[in-house]
Amino acid sequence: MAKEDDLGSDASDLSPDSGSDQDFFNRDRHLCYLQMMLGVLPTYYQVEDINRITLAYFAVSGLGVLGGLHLVDKEMVINWVLSLQAHVKDETELESGQFYGFHGSKSSQFGSSNSEGPILNGSHLASTYCALAILRTVGYDLSLIDSTPILKSMRSLQQPDGSFMPIHIGAERDLRFVYCAAAICSILENWDGMDREKAKEYISNCQSYDGGFGLVPGSESHGGATFCAIASLRLMGLIEDDLFTKNATPNFIDVPLLLEWTLQRQGRDGGFHGRLNKPSDTCYAFWVGGVLKILGAQKLIHKKSLRKFLLTCQTEYGGFSKTPEMLPDLYHSFYGLCAFSLLEETGLPSICVELGITNR
What does the record give under GO molecular function (predicted)? Predict the structure, then answer.
């Protein structure tokens, strides 16, 4: 991603404030943490090298939420992200069924081949979403990207039931990748990459008896899956913003039951959990809180107790942990910051909830 000294010259201005981590939102310390993670990843992230673009998305987008993009060498980040795009040699390769998006890292660009077919590339829907989100965050002109191969090959990943696989063979198919496809089309402002009507039907079939959404039809309701469902529908233009306040209930999902299930995810400690009988977890303040924001029902969140819970997960090193008294990680740090943006923390920009990036 980057060398430590390539990220900017303002890091010396950032020194952790004194005082208890549970007393206030420590913006400076979070800036230091994310800048460090963008430069040099700790040893325990080595096993995640194939997902390096996702880690970069958490770091760059997190700096965006903190208003710290001046600390990023944008040109270097743009060049690195663009180097991960898979390219076709000719139009016939688009008929192979493979996906030509973005790779998760340099290591996944070493494809395998055989004498009977083309070189198999390792580009992935989630990596492509993260790549485009980074480029948009740092202000890259996305019209410069050759999006036709991305969208045309992505269309072949959509299954007859409306779901998506992230790669062309041997992968799961569930709401996560419907969301990635919707986000890619939204960022590129071109919906040729998916059949929205089929996707809507699949999403509708994933709503459970209790109002939440499972990753696949018939599975247990889950906070992350519910976000993927509602954010996808919003991105596809199939539900209005602020459904709760406008009383504009669509007929293909049960919004009152969804709202009831979502509100029940806030626990007595103020935090949100993703499933019944699970402990509160930093990331669900965004996944579940984001659903309530899209629905226009964020006023029903007990914000004071949620903020108090999140501050217990803020660590002395900067960043956020999954639960109190644990070490921070990039995933929970980013979504913890997004949650504070949803809580309208002073000094933080607003975010586009559906895309998981700042409004720019």
Answer: CAAX-protein geranylgeranyltransferase activity; metal ion binding
